[in-house]
Amino acid sequence: MAFLKIQRLVLAAALSLTAWILLGQTDFVPQQTGWHIRTYKYTPSSFDWANRTQSHPVDEASMTRLPAGDPRPLPPIQHQFTSEELSESHNNTQRERRNAVRRAALRSWRAYRDHAWGRDEVTPQTLVGRDTFAGWGATLVDALDTLWIMGLKQDFRDAVEHVAAIDWDKATSEACSLFETNIRYLGGLLSAYDLSGERVLLDKAVELGDMLHAGFDTPNNMPANGFHFAQAKAGKLVASLNEASAAAGTLSLEFTHLSQLTGDPKYYHAIDGVKRALERTQDSTNLPGMWPVFIDLQSSFFTPGTSFSLGASSDSAYEYLSKMHALLGGLDPAYEKLHTKAMATAAQHLLFRPMLPPSSPPTTDILFSGTVLSNGKIIELIPEVQHLGCFAGGMFALGGRLFHNASHIAIGEQLARGCAWAYTAFPTGVMPELSSIIPCNTTTQCTWNETAYQTATTAHGTPHRPPPPPFTAVLSPGYFLRPEAAESLFVLYRVTGKADLLEAAWGMFQAVEKATRTRRAYSAIADVGVEGETGRVDSMESFWIAETLKYFYLIFSEPELISLDEYVFNTEAHPFRLPKPGVKQ
Ligand SMILES: *[C@@H]1O[C@H](CO)[C@@H](O)[C@H](O)[C@H]1NC(C)=O
Ligand SMILES: *[C@@H]1O[C@H](CO)[C@@H](O)[C@H](O)[C@H]1NC(C)=O
Ligand SMILES: *[C@@H]1O[C@H](CO)[C@@H](O)[C@H](O)[C@H]1NC(C)=O
Ligand SMILES: *[C@@H]1O[C@H](CO)[C@@H](O)[C@H](O)[C@H]1NC(C)=O
Ligand SMILES: *[C@@H]1O[C@H](CO)[C@@H](O)[C@H](O)[C@H]1NC(C)=O
């Protein structure tokens, strides 16, 4: 992740019983049968956002609808695994690895279940509940699809029973983040619905979608990320003058999927306005092709900013461009153009090869994505390595497949391997949140320059501990259980079929498991440079089960489990089912 009513079909008891038996017998059921199973009592929220009077309504006639036509066949995304490749890489070794990941997920889930049920998070050391995302049970909703995929069906059922009674009108805070609520809660519900067909999940998604849709009820219909409940009810929200581009660009998949599942175009219409603003501004920013990290949404998408990155606060705005192309079955050409131009600019200006010590194997062919400062004339690369930016490998590879650009698949692999390498460079085997390193002058080669290394290291002042070469500084030494590096290894493995990526992922999982394990769960750590108990931070965010452990589990599973040819992942690792080619929405 990054930085953010329907009629009821009551099935005959016998039918739903049969469905549950069928569902319970397999490890995963990727088929949505068209049966809407209802086994839970649905309790509607106490406020109906769908019936709120809008301050800035869109009239029915001018509403943008989902693109008409039959979804096109997309190019194959996954590597065509041969039976030899499958039997070699999916033998007992992978099964044991996948079970180790499942055990980690189960420990984490049980700690949450036993000590924080219904709260947003469990604190992994002190084992109490904490509300960090409005108190609707962030970990519970975020974990639903992981539980399903891992075959933890009883845990899934217990969680759905709780979800069926969530009241979005009972929040523990006055406001929530539109972005976070969208990716964790709405994304979690939609994906769990796609996988299980359980109707109550869609009912709750619609309630929540109706609430979040009020985030677009602003004077210019741009989204207000600071979703203040009372102001939203009164229709007084205003978009921010200085908003993270990710907050604007990371609503599209979820809103589109909600329109696909309900047939109601209002969600899709809302995010299509953001797309048009992205199109309108793409060529006229200070780094044409990309958008600044922060955007003035209040002045209708004004983009004077000078900082550009694929990391914090802008990441998933880029991630969603190619994914929207896929979710719309290739029917909106705008997303391909947006993606292609953005990636060409990123490849030219943001990506760099790090200067590596002479001891590194000459085959270490890696790239990182940095930050660029540009005023339109002078372009300067800041060679910072963000853990959040590690998703970019997967993004380049997916786009490379969707839009037939082999060099982008190669770039994706170099980026994914870059983050995997960075993990191994630190004492715990885990990469820090933010570090810096020396860029080579070209993306193809360079040799170690000790003078340059010493100069750059000194320039960062005197840290309490020198950074491990070749890093010149560790600017934020923690690891917060983040998924992005595992995510890119997963995508690259599925796309290329290269078996050594499984070994890299296993090394990464073991290091993370060891460095973050607590008595009952797993916790963020304060410093990846220090081994042992000392540096624990008492936090286990919902993305640990939702994303990190899901990607590790999937990479060690058969490639058909949540195939990238059938699903597209939202930025919180929630798989949404892609439309079937030729089948009308
Ligand atoms: C909105 O309210 C009206 C009357 O109060 C009701 O008939 C209608 O079903 C409500 N719509 C939704 C979507 O709940
Ligand atoms: C089993 O998988 C491991 C890890 O991918 C691989 O190294 C090994 O060769 C495989 N064993 C067999 C018998 O295929
Ligand atoms: C792949 O993308 C690059 C921009 O990064 C572009 O220069 C190149 O022409 C593209 N290749 C193909 C085959 O489209
Ligand atoms: C890049 O080129 C500059 C100027 O020639 C040189 O000072 C610097 O050391 C080079 N950097 C690397 C990593 O080779
Ligand atoms: C090594 O780096 C120093 C300082 O950046 C630079 O002056 C020098 O030219 C570099 N040497 C080479 C061979 O690039």
From TrEMBL:
Q: Give the protein name, as stated in the record.
A: alpha-1,2-Mannosidase
Natural source organism: Staphylotrichum tortipilum
- Gene Ontology biological process: carbohydrate metabolic process; ERAD pathway
Its EC number(s): 3.2.1.-
Q: Which domain of life is it from?
A: Eukaryota
Task: List cofactor names only.
Answer: Ca(2+)
Disulphide connectivity of cysteines: C390-C419
Instruction: Tell me which family the UniProt entry assigns to this protein.
Output: Belongs to the glycosyl hydrolase 47 family.
